[in-house]
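<given_protein>
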Amino acid sequence: MPPDGMMAPESILGAAGGMTEVFTSTKSCAPICWDAGDDEGQIPPREWLLGHIFCRRFLSSLLADGGVGKTALRLVQLVSLASGRNLTGERVFQPCRVLFVSLEDDLVELQRRILAITKHHKISRKELKGRLFLWAPKGLRLAEMKDGTVTVGKLERDLRAMVDEHKIDVISLDPFVKSHGLQENDNNAVDYVCTLLTKLAIEKNCAIDALHHTRKGSSMAGNADSGRGASAMKDAARLVYTLTQMTSEEAKQFSIPEDERRHYIRMDSGKVNIAPASTAAKWFKLVSVPLNNGTDLYPEGDEVQTVEPWSPPKIWDGLDTVMINRILDQIEEGLPNGSRYSSASSAGDDRAAWRVVKHYSPEKTEQQGREIIKTWLRNGTLYPESYDDPEQRKSRTGLRVDKDKRPTGSAP
């Protein structure tokens, strides 16, 4: 049941202006249903727009802590769609008309961000003309409380008008929490807002995206439950990704200096339930772009952050979390005869730890396998420990796994 003052679901679906065939018939009050025995011909495929990030008629979301770079990444993805260029390593199925709605920054700041993207990725303004639209409304809401009743706000009506006027294919709202005036911890209230967005996506045949902050202390790669507020947001969105900063352990694995790791961010599939989930993270690097807009008062001008794709060192290619944990499981288990694996160059073939890597990833060379073992020793995932070898009847040194340092995300 909806909370006091909130319209029932039937009213919610019709509140934004007219019902569609999806929800009810225009000729009678009887609901429309489909007889699965009817032959409807070939069912059309889902209309993906950018990789498995945006899809017509579905709600997407990107979860991240403040300051990680989610707006910078999303804007590059949207520019990629508007220009038709692959800027982020995701397939552009078709060039799109994009509307980015910033509920935090003003229009001038958005212009700085777009200038940084076009300068860094060498995109002309002509490529974006009539395809990328920026809007920075303040105080408008998709839904809000009026006289104790939840009502559809002006932002929802204005979005419909802008979609019609500019024939928008993708709408991105930043951030979700500022798009409505309801209680963010109330599942019914948040579901109301998400229903409005989903209905808009279906009726206008567009993709809708909402950037969302994570709860304090809950940020973890691939954790779709880390979004702040009610879980209804995660439940309603079909394409949820997380964006997290490179950890100290990952920086050691990739030989990135500690003072530079904050420039590297990873995007993981948290909930992609209309497409196969990817087990490998997509990595990006934050770069600072000088705008060369200095004045007498501010001679240095501005530097604005944008992103570019980044790939971890080649030795980690093909090693996702599942594969890595299988390798570590075998190293921790040891050999059937009770001996333990070793990283020593003098270790025989049966005890050489690099051979475990090669067993699970045959394309790796001996040198790559040894480097992976060395990396885990450096960051503490593996550590040497003395034990009594029952085969040799003497004390030897073998490898053990620190369970607290096993990978839990979607990359090495």
User: Anything to note?
Assistant: The chain has two domains: 48-312, 321-405. The first helix runs from residue 9 to 15. Confidence is low (pLDDT under 50) at residues 1-5, 7-26. The radius of gyration is 26 Å.
